[in-house]
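Worked problem 6 (solution included).
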Amino acid sequence: MNNKDIIQAFLTSIKQQQNPLPPEEQSKLNQIGNILRENIDLGLEELDKFARKSSVLQVIYRNECANLQNAAAERQKNREIGIKITEDNFDKTLINLASICQATDSVNAAKAPEQKNILQKFLGIFNRQ
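Solution. The predicted structure is:
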């Protein structure tokens, strides 16, 4: 799975939660946020592992991953040309992702109005690809 899909699947799964993550999962997610700030690839790899194993996120995350992979395969098959995401947008989104992961309550941080606008723009770009 590529980095964009990991980000989109994670954000989709965490934004659908009604309650904060369990404390042990929130603590692990905070650690991943720190890793994201230092090493994007390693951080996203850890985020993917976390979401796949999370007692709260795993079902939605895995379903979203499958949907994204199916959509990518269909796009490839049809050879659709996607919209390129700019480096600037990707960097801003990674910073926001790290902030969400490092928050005391990542579920509510992902739903915060200032995060929502930035992340919706980012995800909107992916949805047009």
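Discussion: The chain has one domain: 3-127.
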